[in-house]
Amino acid sequence: xxxxxxxKLSIIIPCYxxxxxxxxxxxxxxxxxxxxxxxxxxxxxxxxxxxxxxxGYCATHPNAEYVDGENVGVGGARxxxxxxxxxxxxxxxxxxxxxxxxxxxxxxxxxxxNNADMGICGFKRIKEKRAKKxxxxxxxxxxxxxxxxxxxxxxxxxxxxxxxxxxxxxxxxEHLRKSGATFLDCRYxxxxxxxxxxFKRVNKVVYSPVQTYLYVQRKKSLMHSGFNPSxxxxxxxxxxxxxxxxxxxxxxxxxxxxxxxGYAVGLLxxxxxxxxxxxxxxxxxxxxxxxxxxxxxxxxxxxxxxRLFIPLIPPIAKLLFRKTIKQA
Length: 328
Prior knowledge:
Elements: E1 9-15, H1 22-30, E2 37-44, H2 50-60, E3 64-69, H3 74-82, E4 89-92, E5 98-99, H4 103-113, E6 118-127, H5 128-131, E7 145-148, H6 149-158, E8 169-172, H7 173-179, H8 190-199, E9 204-217, H9 233-248, H10 253-273, H11 279-292, H12 295-300, H13 304-309, H14 313-327
Parallel strand pairs: 1-2, 1-4, 2-3, 6-9
Antiparallel strand pairs: 4-8, 5-9, 6-8, 7-9
Helix pairs in contact: 8-9, 9-10, 10-11
């Protein structure tokens, strides 16, 4: 899209102690075929030289700016980014991931040409060791699917087509204002609350399976670590979503309950392996599981089963293997 009237796209990039990944991130941004970009780096109280590296980039790129503040977690950082949006559309990028050269061009084209409230592309998960050697295949947009109203929301909640992530999506700034979607101050699962509130008022969402985003799975990341109290944030978010669904979107209630039950199972498994001892919190998780247990059957009917339970297979297998070795 080389048209000078091409709409501006704001890109929000939260940053915390990521100086080692910034050079590759800058390269991805500079290689984009879509030119009308507004880049927002949010330094979330980094303790390394992340801020200095960001300042250097912004000094040579008039379309880039940074926000500096105390560490509030990725949810709070993304909310700060939302407050700086200038474009008609906005998207997110995690600094340690990779995107194809036409990633943002594809997203803008999808949402504009289809007059949608959101556009979603496919993505590929990849281990850290293989990421730098990966080459994107042909990434032209194709096979676009359309979803409307509550069906779009339930597709998100069921994980049939969409995923619980932000960075493979493009959003309408106008719709953001109408929806009132915001991020909570939390360090884990912050996207669930934001996406639910954005999705529940959409008219139209478009999706293409073409993979233009490379999600790098890193061992040191919170997402792939063992139990951390920050993981409890996801249940807080889901409790708010459940309350909202019960009042305003009845068709979504079962999906939310199955999500909550699945995460409760995962939390209890990882807590069991850790030295976490807060009995009140553990009791609350167990109560949540009891309340939503019936919905685990519903979960099996959707892609939520793969999302919530398949990740538990490797750690469970390792645990059983260790027990077998000890007993031998």
